[in-house]
Amino acid sequence: MSAALDTDTHIASSIRTDAPPAILLDRVNKWYGSMHVLRDVSLQVATGERVVVCGPSGSGKSTMIRCINRLEQHQEGRIVVDGHELADDVRALDAIRREVGMVFQSFNLFPHLTILENCTLAPIWVRRMPKREAEELAMHYLTRVKIPDQALKYPGQLSGGQQQRVAIARALCMKPKIMLFDEPTSALDPEMIKEVLDTMVGLAEDGMTMICVTHEMGFARQVADRVVFMDRGEVVEQGAPEQLFSNPSTERLKTFLSQIL
Ligand code: ADP
Ligand code: MG
Which family does it belong to (predicted)? Predict the structure, then answer.
């Protein structure tokens, strides 16, 4: 968990070619009313693969992520997560919620619960884990994100970076197979961004399958097996970070990169 972001080295790939894809989107379409927000989005994420998604505001990144764990519903196309087809089958939905961890831009911690209680809530009530065991697990992950000493405090007593690390620890307590991050550092002050990215690098080093929506291109360079560029509801380009950043093939990506780099 001590990886530094200021190195140029890309961490070793953990893609598992012997396992079925962790996530499959096949020509997914979604509308909000008459607004077409996902247009024939196809994306396959291998087990152990790390995908960074970038693109202008309003391009459909959050909507795509939210469709993957069914916080939103798509109207056309297929989404398969860890072998579960996302349809109206409630059991499949339960499985997906258990297997997919999500971290949002706003940390979404429960303000009236301690850090420890935030982390043990779902394991106790969803996984039916005994309280003691859930607390041990929570302390394990709070130690991993380097804030075991904050366990008995309330979210409001922690910095933004610490709260986001709690959100990551809380997601990990459900032992997810896949982690989805939606701009986890964009609400943070600059000095706190690195501590959160370091935590995410550590997860990547452990071989976690991840989709991260982020504009932290240093993180993408170090961690991503693949970068996906979205614009106006479409996947416009994708490829290895170096290739995509140094050699964009569309004007849309060139324009986007010139604005963020
Ligand atoms: P991004 O995450 O790339 O900024 P979003 O997925 O949040 O983009 O949004 C894509 C488009 O869908 C935007 O035009 C946005 O205004 C619209 N949108 C997002 N959520 C909703 C919603 N709940 N209801 C209606 N429109 C929405
Ligand atoms: Mg978004």
Answer: Belongs to the ABC transporter superfamily.
Q: Along the 261 residues of the chain, how does pLDDT read in single tens digits?
A: 444 455 567 888 889 888 889 999 999 999 999 999 999 999 999 999 999 999 999 999 999 999 999 999 999 999 999 999 888 677 778 888 889 999 999 999 999 999 999 999 999 998 899 999 999 999 999 999 999 999 999 999 999 999 999 999 999 999 999 999 999 999 999 999 999 999 999 999 999 999 999 999 999 999 999 999 999 999 999 999 999 999 999 999 999 999 987
Place of tokens 């614009």: 231
- Beta strand 209-213 with 178-182 is parallel
- Cα 195 to ligand 2 centroid, rounded to whole Å: 21
Residue 4 pairs in a beta bridge with none
Q: What's 149's DSSP letter?
A: G
ipTM: 0.98
CB-ligand 1 contact for 214 (6 Å cutoff): no
Question: In this structure, which ligand is nearest to the CA of 58?
Answer: 1
Query: What is the pTM assigned to this prediction?
Result: 0.94
For residue 131, what are the contacts with CB-CB under 8 A and spacing of at least 6? 120, 124
62 C-beta closer than 6 A to ligand 1: yes
Cross-strand pairs, 44:
24
One-letter identity of residue 9: T
| Burial of 1 from C-beta contacts in 10 A (0-12 / 13-18 / 19+) | middle
CA distances from 23 to 48, 99, 100, 117, 217 (A): 11, 12, 10, 31, 23
Pocket of ligand 1 contains residue 59 by CB under 6 Å:
yes
CA of 62 to the centre of ligand 2 (A): 4
